[in-house]
């Protein structure tokens, strides 16, 4: 049996803050005028991404695991359910100021769910666009409550201007917001639990105030000052440049930039990669050279790489973000 990278068909989501870039610039198809999120690698109930490959027609990630657990490696057995969710997120408007619980709180209060530690790789950013990430200084719970009542919570937060290629780690408990004009690749635990603290007094599509979750948010928020890490440095390697972006208990992420050819292996377990720049082809397993036919890829595509696979990407220039557990 051939072991190869498998293209994924995402699930798109639309919320009141979504933009148009995922459709116009990242190739995402949807019936809605705007797309807020594209769930690229997902085994979340009701929002499962599907394998887009004739060898596994209609397979979700869950079905692929059921039929071929060897594709996922041994480490996945350490998790009670599929551990990852990978998204593209386009903030056409500011997202709410929000926070996510850790695993312990979510397990006790959200029906056994995972918590949500996440990270952002900035794919696109309008001039002067920014994110809000953690507090500038230590705050008290009473101080935070007062700021929420007065609508001044954003004044307590780090306002960070961003550009493509920036990377930010967002541990569970960190109060944060993506803001207008920022498009990111988001890698996170497989959870959709969000507690909104502040939403600019917006209403939903029916004219009702959007629900806030002040009690829960105050219970899980980290009130200590958040100091963003410096951006990681690149190092040269045989195919181009690489930098390790993150290594935590939930996922490992690196960025690879290559010219002409990049060969990647999934030795110990599965991997996934999303194309951040470039277009080209994945050579077939029996391709004799780089001029042979292959599976096309373009910016915005995400592939699942089974354990044991060797993947050869060919492009004049490419940038991919690789995620492993």
UniProtKB/TrEMBL annotation:
Cofactor note: Binds 1 zinc ion per subunit.
Cofactor(s) required for function per UniProt: Zn(2+)
Keyword annotations of the record: Isomerase, Metal-binding, Zinc
Keyword Zinc listed: yes
Binding annotation for Zn(2+): 100, 118, 176
Biological process according to GO: carbohydrate metabolic process
InterPro entries (alphabetical): Carb_Metab_Reg_Kinase/Isom, Man6P_isomerase_Firm_short, PMI_typeI_cat, RmlC-like_jellyroll, RmlC_Cupin_sf
Residues at the catalytic site: 196
Ranges where the Phosphomannose isomerase type I catalytic domain occurs: 6-108
SUPFAM superfamilies for the chain: RmlC-like cupins (SSF51182)
Name the UniProt record assigns to this protein: Class I mannose-6-phosphate isomerase
């Amino acid at each position: 049996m051939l072991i190869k990278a498998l293209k994924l068909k995402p699930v798109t989501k639309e919320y009141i803050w979504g933009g148009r870039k995922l459709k116009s610039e990242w190739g995402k198809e949807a019936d809605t005028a705007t797309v807020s999120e594209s769930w690229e690698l997902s085994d979340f109930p009701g929002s499962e991404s599907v394998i887009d490959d004739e060898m596994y027609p209609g397979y979700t990630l869950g079905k692929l695991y059921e039929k071929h657990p060897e594709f996922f490696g041994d480490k996945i057995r350490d998790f009670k359910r599929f551990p990852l969710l990978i998204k593209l997120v386009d903030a056409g408007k500011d997202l709410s100021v929000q926070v996510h619980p850790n695993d312990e709180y979510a397990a006790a209060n959200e029906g056994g769910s995972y918590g949500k530690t996440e990270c952002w790789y900035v794919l696109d950013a309008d001039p002067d666009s920014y994110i809000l990430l953690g507090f500038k200084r230590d705050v008290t719970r009473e101080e935070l409550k007062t700021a929420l009542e007065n609508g001044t919570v954003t004044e307590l937060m780090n306002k960070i201007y961003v550009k493509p290629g920036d990377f930010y780690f967002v541990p569970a408990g960190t109060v944060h917001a993506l803001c207008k004009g920022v498009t990111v690749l988001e890698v996170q635990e497989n959870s959709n639990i969000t507690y909104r603290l502040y939403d600019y007094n917006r209403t939903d599509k029916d004219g009702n105030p959007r629900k806030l979750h002040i009690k829960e948010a105050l219970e899980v928020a980290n009130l200590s000052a958040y100091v963003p890490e410096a951006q990681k440095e690149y190092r040269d390697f045989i195919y181009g440049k690489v930098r390790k972006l993150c290594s935590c208990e939930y996922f490992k992420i690196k960025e690879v930039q290559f010219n002409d050819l990049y060969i990647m292996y999934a030795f110990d377990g599965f991997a996934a990669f999303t194309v951040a720049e470039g277009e080209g082809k994945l050579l077939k397993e029996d391709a004799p050279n780089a001029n042979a036919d292959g599976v096309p890829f373009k910016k915005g595509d995400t592939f699942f790489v089974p354990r044991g696979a060797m993947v050869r990407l060919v492009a004049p220039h490419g940038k991919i973000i690789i995620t492993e557990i």
